[in-house]
Amino acid sequence: MRYSVSLFVLLSVLCLAGCGGDGVTKKADSGALEIAVIPKGLSHQFWLGVKAGAEAAAAECGASVVWQGPPKETEIALQINIVQDMITRGVSAIVMAACDENALATVIDQADKAGIPVVMVDSGVKSDIPKCLVATDNLEGAKMAAEVLAGLMDGQGELGLLPFISGAATSEIREQGFKEGVAAYPEMKIVTTHYTQSDVSTAMNVTSDMLTAHPDLGGIFATNEPGAIGAAQALRAAGKAGKVKLVGFDSTEEEINALKEGVIQALIVQDPFKMGYEGVNTAVAALQGETVPSLIDTGVTVVTLENLESEEVQALLNAGK
User: Fold this and answer.
1) 245: domain range?
2) Residue 148 and residue 174 in one domain
3) Which of 16, 161, 237, 272 could form a disulfide with 49, with the two C-beta atoms 3.0–4.6 Å apart?
4) How far apart are CA 223 and CA 214, in angstroms?
């Protein structure tokens, strides 16, 4: 079942128009157009999809990508240092996903004062400075997760929630969306919430704690890749795979395998390739002085065993590979 509204063609045209302008083309040809792309972390497959999309867009524009981010999504200070290094380097634009929506606002202000446009992808900041946010509608995606779990659990039972990092905009919005979605089902209740710190081992441990403390738990929503993988491992270890319904976010190979195995029942799948692609497109357009949209919704799809092999889902899962 497809829930996204694609802006891919529209923004591709925008990029081609922007890259075709004499000013930008000459800068790129001279090697001057350099786009810093800064993810929240480097250890998860999701960010490799963002990188692939960013590099594809840069190649079309004749630009170059400087890819650098903290190893872990919890390393906020390191990400701030990376942004400051890119400002000192004098990159043409910055495309980034913020580890923390508050902490990164000041350094983005520094980029703006240096004349470097900033485009956010995946996770934004509490600031009006970025030219655009290119992201999933995380609120809607999390509500979809609640709807899927309600269907799997006949609209009743106890739920566990696994957000990832407190203060990360994406995590907080997904937590909010799930709670709003569950509120539509009066016989369902979130009885336990644990942050995973975007770490598989942590996710496994807190899920094990959930299962012990709440033996009647009927479903879990894991709000990102490591959360889903860790929760799946805990369910296997506890012998509750398939008994406790698990809905996760993203679509790594390990998550897809767990879906096929029946440990995960559904995945809320983003389009990281498109995030990176449209992030760089938008940065190039902003560099040329074009008016860019303040928000680009890259779409979200619910993937289940039933639609996994469909042409549409396979195209999404294999984008950039």
Assistant:
1) 138-269
2) yes
3) 272
4) 20
Place of tokens 């012990």: 212
State the Cα–Cα distance between residues 261 and 271, nearest whole angstrom: 23
Read off the tokens for 45.
């497959």
Q: Where do we find the tokens 């889902």? A: 313
Spell out the residues 6+ positions from residue 289 whose beta carbon is closer than 8 angstroms to its own.
none
Identify which of 149, 152, 77 has the alpha carbon closest to the alpha carbon of residue 161: 149
Written as six digits, the tokens of 176 are 């909010």
179, containing H or E segment: helix 169-182
Number of H helices, E strands in the chain: 12, 12
Question: Which tokens in the block code for residue 307?
Answer: 């639609």
Of 136, 85, 124, 121, the C-alpha closest to 316 is 136
pLDDT in tens, 186-241: 999 999 999 999 999 999 999 999 999 999 999 999 999 999 999 999 999 999 99
| Ranges assigned E (strand) in 28-72 | 34-38, 64-67
Q: In what order do the strands lie in the sheet with 217-222?
A: 188-193, 157-162, 217-222, 245-249, 266-269, 301-303
Mode of pairing for the β-strands spanning 266-269 and 245-249: parallel
pTM (predicted TM-score): 0.85
At 128, phi and psi to the nearest 5?
-95, 5
Residues 125 and 162 in one domain: no
Neighbours of 136 (CB within 10 A): 27
